[in-house]
């Protein structure tokens, strides 16, 4: 509750900061202060301090899972601001508004993480999506950004319409929006409920860019300004997975046999298309876009398995994936050339940044001693615990091996190619934050319980 | 019935695909099409017919039309128009409150006050941003 209200109010505060504050550094500091406040108040709520008492009629429930997830998201967003807030200046003139939109997105994320009613899910998804359409097109003079924004808006609203249809079907079948009452509907499952569930599955798969609903993702991530592509590919993607898992755990949990094989097929397709297409990319930004599709395939395991391991694993995965991808995107944003060749000789000019980027890449590839390895391990273990579809696990391991190729290509370009990666300007804050990101990736890879401990206590 | 990709069914799926369950939809279609046909027929049969040249002219709120509608319009017009629509629609929320004014009591009052507060924030924001400055 704390985070929900503070993020909404702080969004309005950021809106006005653009008028009242003339200095851009002032706006940036205000945003960082707001995010710290958000994180602290959310952690306080985890230990029982709630600032606002609002009668919610059970439509939103801030349980341990939601609050813990929100904390991970706010922490990642804070790191994101430290790394990328300065680069948002390059995008356009409405500096304060970008932060305002980011706070509104965070408000939507707290909603989708804690919904108990389909109405709130819809509201949350829309509050997340609409600012994203704007952020995608925020580089007004850039034709690619405009194209990406229009594409995203059209496809996004189409999938929202499908979601609404699904919600209407579920309401028609059970007579309620509340997840508790939808589960309780006894006896036979009506075909209407199955139809509603399928439509919801499709629209959520779209939001999470799961194959075959992923076509928008590479184009939008490629066209959007790099700073915002980074935000979309990490924090927002994690949020759509949380909504996804909440939906299928809370509402359709007892219909698992009906959808489990669907999930398995979607997982396999996502892993295959994401990884194989990423191999052929020449631009690092586009490679990261496909890599985010491929990583979504691994996150799909949590939906497929849907047990304790899966939920823990997803939380770890979200943290590991967000950290690593935010780091790589932040470095990419500093480069003038987005192709693999643009990174040639990067290790010579910026040894510290190259080393931390390498650690992030290793984590994404799932090399042991990084957070990426353990989170993948959790996912696969959860899938094995279901005692069926072992082929899926084997397939995932093969695909993870394929992913090593394109991640290591970047490492190779940085370390083993002669080249003149342009001298880039980095502030000490940027450099140290990258080191912290790399350190966190390794720390979570060795002691995952540092994070997961907070989930239970 | 065809089960797509389902390993086993946790609960028996109700069979609703028999023809009888489509009956209400059929009745709805017949009624909808029937109403349209009926109204068209009745107006043609009963309505008076006076054909004059004035009736073929375009009618805009009683003002005589002049010029061509297809000419470029300043982008500022769209901004003002869209802001107008936004605020106009928001005012609609007052209607249900006005109807239930007594029933909602103080909690309803605070809720509406909060709404108006946000509403005012948006208004101040667009004024400060200069969205309503016409001469520039």
What would your notes on this structure say?
The complex is a heterodimer of chains A (about 450) and B (about 140). Chain A has about 450 residues and is mainly α. Chain A has a domain at about 255-455. Chain A has helices spanning about 1-20, 25-45, 65-85, 95-115, 120-135, 145-175, 180-185, 190-205, 215-225, 225-250, 255-280, 285-305, 310-335, 345-350, 350-365, 370-385, 390-415, 430-445, 450-455. The relative contact order of chain A is 0.09. Chain B is an all-alpha fold and about 140 residues long. Among the domains of chain B are: about 20-45; about 75-135, Methane Monooxygenase Hydroxylase, Chain G, domain 1 (Up-down Bundle), CATH 1.20.58. Chain B is about 55% helix and about 0% strand. Chain B is built from four helices and no strands. The N and C termini of chain B lie far apart (about 65 Å). The interface of A and B includes residues 188, 189 and 191 of A.
Short description:
Chain A is mostly helical and 457 residues long.
Oligomer: heterodimer
User: Which residues of chain B sit in consecutive blocks of at least 5 with pLDDT less than 50?
Assistant: none
Q: With helices defined by DSSP (H or I, 4 residues minimum), what is the helix count of chain B? A: 4
Shape of chain B: flat
Largest sheet of chain A: none
Unreliable spans of chain A: none
């Amino acid at each position: 509750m704390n985070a929900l209200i503070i993020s909404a109010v702080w969004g309005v505060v950021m809106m006005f900061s653009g008028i009242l504050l003339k200095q851009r550094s002032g706006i940036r500091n205000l945003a960082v202060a707001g995010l710290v406040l958000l994180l602290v108040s959310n952690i306080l709520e985890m230990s029982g301090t709630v600032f606002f008492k609002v009668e919610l009629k059970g439509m939103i429930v801030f349980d341990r899972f939601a609050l813990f997830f929100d904390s991970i998201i706010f922490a990642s967003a804070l790191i994101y601001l430290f790394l990328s807030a300065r680069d948002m200046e390059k995008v356009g003139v409405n500096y304060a508004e970008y932060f305002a939109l980011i706070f509104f997105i965070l408000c939507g994320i707290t909603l989708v993480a804690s919904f108990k009613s389909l109405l709130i899910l819809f509201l949350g998804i829309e509050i997340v999506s609409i600012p994203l359409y704007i952020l995608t097109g925020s580089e007004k003079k850039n034709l690619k950004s405009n194209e990406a924004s229009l594409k995203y808006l059209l496809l996004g609203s189409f999938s929202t319409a499908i979601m609404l249809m699904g919600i209407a079907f579920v309401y028609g079948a059970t007579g309620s929006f509340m997840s508790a009452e939808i589960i309780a509907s006894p006896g036979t499952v009506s075909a209407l409920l199955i139809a509603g569930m399928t439509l919801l599955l499709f629209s959520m798969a779209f939001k999470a860019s799961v194959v075959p609903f992923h076509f928008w993702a590479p184009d939008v991530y490629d066209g959007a300004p790099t700073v915002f592509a980074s935000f979309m590919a990490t924090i927002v993607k994690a949020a759509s997975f949380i909504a996804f898992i909440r939906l299928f755990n809370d509402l359709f949990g007892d219909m698992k046999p009906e959808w489990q094989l669907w999930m398995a097929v979607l997982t396999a397709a996502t892993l295959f298309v994401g990884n194989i297409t990423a191999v052929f990319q020449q631009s690092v930004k586009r490679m990261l876009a496909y890599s985010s599709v491929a990583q979504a395939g691994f996150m799909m395991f949590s939906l497929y398995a849907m047990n304790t391991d899966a939920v823990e694993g997803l939380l770890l995965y979200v943290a590991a994936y967000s950290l690593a991808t935010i780091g790589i995107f932040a470095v990419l944003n500093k480069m003038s050339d987005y192709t693999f060749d643009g990174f040639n000789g990067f290790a010579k000019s910026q040894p510290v940044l190259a080393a931390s980027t390498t650690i992030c890449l290793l984590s994404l590839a799932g090399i042991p001693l990084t957070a990426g390895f353990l989170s993948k391990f959790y996912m696969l273990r959860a899938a094995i615990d279901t005692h069926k579809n072992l082929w899926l696990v084997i397939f995932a391991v093969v695909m993870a091996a394929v992913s090593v190729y394109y991640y290591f290509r970047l490492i190779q370009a940085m370390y083993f190619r002669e080249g003149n990666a342009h001298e880039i300007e980095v502030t000490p804050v940027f450099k140290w934050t990258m080191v912290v990101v790399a350190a966190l990736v390794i720390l979570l890879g060795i002691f995952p319980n540092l994070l997961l401990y907070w989930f239970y206590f | 019935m065809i089960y797509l990709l389902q390993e086993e069914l946790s609960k028996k799926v109700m069979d609703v695909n028999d023809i009888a369950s489509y009956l209400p939809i059929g009745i709805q279609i017949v009624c909808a099409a029937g109403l349209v046909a009926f109204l068209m027929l009745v107006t043609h049969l009963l309505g008076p017919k006076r054909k004059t040249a004035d009736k073929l002219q375009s009618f805009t709120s009683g003002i005589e039309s002049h010029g061509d509608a297809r000419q470029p319009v300043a982008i500022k017009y769209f901004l003002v128009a869209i802001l107008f629509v936004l605020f106009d629609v928001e005012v609609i929320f007052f209607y249900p409150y006005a109807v239930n004014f007594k029933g909602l009591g103080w909690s309803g009052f605070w809720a509406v006050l909060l709404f108006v507060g946000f509403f005012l924030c948006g208004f101040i924001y667009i004024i400060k941003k200069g969205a309503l400055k016409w001469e520039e």
